[in-house]
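Morning F.,

Quick status update on the modeling queue. The single chain you submitted on Monday has been processed. Sequence for confirmation:
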Amino acid sequence: VVSGLGKGVTISSMGRLLQACGLRVTAIKIDPYLNVDAGTMSPFEHGEVFVLDDGGETDLDLGNYERFLNVHLTQDHNITTGKIYRHVILKERRGDYLGKTVQ
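Structure tokens below.
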């Protein structure tokens, strides 16, 4: 998928149409980045950072989702590969996998 083509606005618009049909809508953004969040990413490469009410630093798409859909999103609505890796590594370090190989 290519960045900067208006996917966030398009998805927000589709969500708004679904709301107009009486459906309840929320949004989740999934990014393949190894970064945990967008807070330390270059705005020249990735665009502006949008800060959610709970302090989560995400890309601007989540801001579009909130405004278009009139929903309250949290940092849990933004998933990155970095967040998943961090979660798995913390569990491994705590011993949650009981010495098994994590693959």
